Predict the 3D structure of the following.
Amino acid sequence: MTSGRRFFAAAALVAAVVSPGVALALGPSLPPDASAEGWRIDRLFSSTHVLVALVAVVAFGGLALALLRYRGPRAASYSHGTTGRAIAWPLAAAAFVLLVVDGNLFVTSTLDLRTLTDVRAKAEDPDAVKIQLTARQWSWEARYPGPDDTFGTAQDVVVTDHLRIPVGRPVVVQLASVDVVHALNLPNFRVKLQAIPGRIGSVWFQAEKKGRFEIACAQHCGTFHYKMRGVLEVVDDDTFEEWLAREADDAVRVQQERDRADAEEAPPRSPWPRWEEPPEAGAWSWEAGLEGEGAPLLERSSEDRPAEGHRDEPGGAR
Amino acid sequence: MSRGAGGGAGSPAGQSALRKLARALTSTDHKAIAKKYLWAGLVFLAIGGLLAMVMRWQWAHPGEPVPVVGQLLFSASGGAVTPASYTSLFTSHGLIMIFFAITPILIGAFGTFCIPLMIGAQNLAFPRLGAVSFWLFALSQALALASLVMPAGAPASGWTMYPPMSTTAADPGPGQTVMIAAILTTGAASILVAINHVTTVITQRAPGMTWGRLPLTVWGFWLAAVLSALFLPVLCVATSLLFLDRVADAGFFLAGAKGAGDPLLYQHLFWIFGHPEVYILILPVWGILGDLLAVFARKPAFWYRGQVGAMIAVSSMSGLVYGHHMFQTGMGPMLGGAFEVLTLAISGPAVVLYVNWLCTLWGGSIRFDVPMLFVLGTMFVFGVGGLTGLYLGAITTDIHLHDTLWVVGHFHLIMAAATFLGSFAAIYYWFPKLFGRALSRPLSLVHFWGSFVLLVITFSLMLSAGYEGQPRRLYDPFGYDFLAGLEGINAVTSYAAFALGAVQIVFVINFVGSLVRGPAASDDPWAATTLEWSVPSPPPEENFSVTPVVRRGPHELASPEAVARLGRDYLRQDEESP
């Protein structure tokens, strides 16, 4: 090899080896965490970075060292690597990765998941804000219970693509889709969950910082997937309650006006009962998702499917 | 120029050329079939790569007209990628690369070429089935191309084709239906190939070629074939049900108001196939790495049984880990935890493999020939790909990373970088044996360094953007405030990808040029130990004029016996002891 070529090769090698390290260590950072429990995920990232960096230094440093030290031609050793001492190397390395790196990932994530997936306990918390979130091509429709704290009444507040939640209170979201598979993605709250037609997902989080954050769709859902953006506005508790009450009043007022108009327009005396529209399909009730325990398990899902639980309650305000 | 003994007697042109063509098309010789797979795969590799570059243009310059090909592909929008065509771009890129480019190059070409030669056989166990598989595969490629130009658009539901996106409820056009037919056809072709490869290794080994003496390459191809035979039928089931949903309104995957089925069922079926598919494509590369590291370090492969055992362990576990693709579907914590343990456990045998490769190099006499450079590059990108996968194996870190560019960067480091560099290691290593000619070393070096460095840069920057939270498959990611700062990194990634594409032109020149006027290759240019190097380059139709008798394992390098008696450092598997 000429010295020019050697320099080129060495420079390229260094660039290739260094770039993932630089890219991963200096470049990116996780989106700012605005949630109460997101630190658990960020902490597992940090500890894994340290362990992975250690493994990478040994693995790639060992590779570089071998290439430098054992450049041919030289007398290679006639060894098949079958002695107990020889195979201790791969086995020890595997044991380290399995027990330390994987062990840390598994134990930490399993312990953290007990908190992160404990939707049931949070749903029973009287402080919790409950939201039925419907994903559709290409928007997020959220339904809050009004001050009566009951879904499916005239007080229901329905908003699209702009959700408000109070800071410091758990938010329990039940998630459904009426068309294709979507995924609720709240990057600043470390939340991601698929919305799958025919079943209801549930997830909880709690905002610790006020401000405007974004709702993204993480699952390819069609041509305008990239436009399925929503705003999540975290406000203080009073502002939230005021807003909710105002919206609920508005919903009730609209409903009353509609009822009055219906009554005035209705034919005076008909022998027939009022025409019943067939229930809207593909929707669901809050209770359907909370049967059983915790987050809906895969095995349970057959109960969640169509029959009773998935029909919209008539009379819900829209 | 000597083309070996297999070329057939020269005869007058004209009608003889036609006859030659007819013979080439109907040939049942595994080497002729392998070459057809190689060409078919390389052409689709170029198509898939071009699709990727058009996609990357959109991320570097959202909404701006694509240079060169824009007017041709997107004339209606003045050459700019539209949201709808963007979804078709990434859908067809993924499907083409996995099913119609990597699979034929690795398994179709090199599996079919290497297995009989390396085990001392004359041909595959079922030669005519070998030819039928290829033509079935060619039909599937034709269907895939046809799906791209169907009225109402190419398939657009992503390479995973999740329903209801892939059903007529969301996409009534014929493009998706034709692509599903293409996947079904290619699945059937792959099952036939798998049956052929599995049977060939079991029944056609030369005398003395015990399982413990099989080259690691053959182990890799054999295990990949076993997995194909087991799991491609699951893909065929999933796509058949999807096909019935589209053409017969069967409703297997439609829920709620639209049917009594379940879209999640498809995800299970797809990933039961989809995860083993990763190993189907990487196992041959692992095997090739094991053998080539020994040849170019001039030292026996370290702990042969450990390497085989690790590959068997990964193969056995491959069907049990697929759930990590579905961690964020609302999977129950118990089931998720089980999949998490199994997924993380795969890193055990993977580390054993890597350290074995490292120990093969340790104490060797390393020769930096071109195939070796590709092998070392594969080792590196496989290492980075494996380490970045750990974060996806744990449910909580996966919450943040799922469906981001981190996933895309990770699986491209394995599926694109490692299988790409591994495939090219195979191409550079066996090219002399396949075609009887040698490639140009300077052009090969440019191709290696360009590909290696640019692959690493492209996919590490993708990891970086994903870590910041950039979701995959966004036509214009910068409509999100939290991604607005990522325009620079996306543009750099795109230009690295364009450069990567440009470097492949060097390979095309080298490949075609060497085929036409490359110097004749010797029978054993690498001083290697396996049986294919005992026959002329290219090998005659019957491969071995006399059935070889295998006397030792595949890595008798640095052999003191050979050095003392023969003045060289190796003994081929079939050579009598000096």
Summary: Residues 27-566 of chain B form a domain with the Cytochrome C Oxidase; Chain A fold (CATH 1.20.210.10). The first helix of chain B runs from residue 15 to 26. Chain B touches chain A through 113 residues (CB under 8 Å).
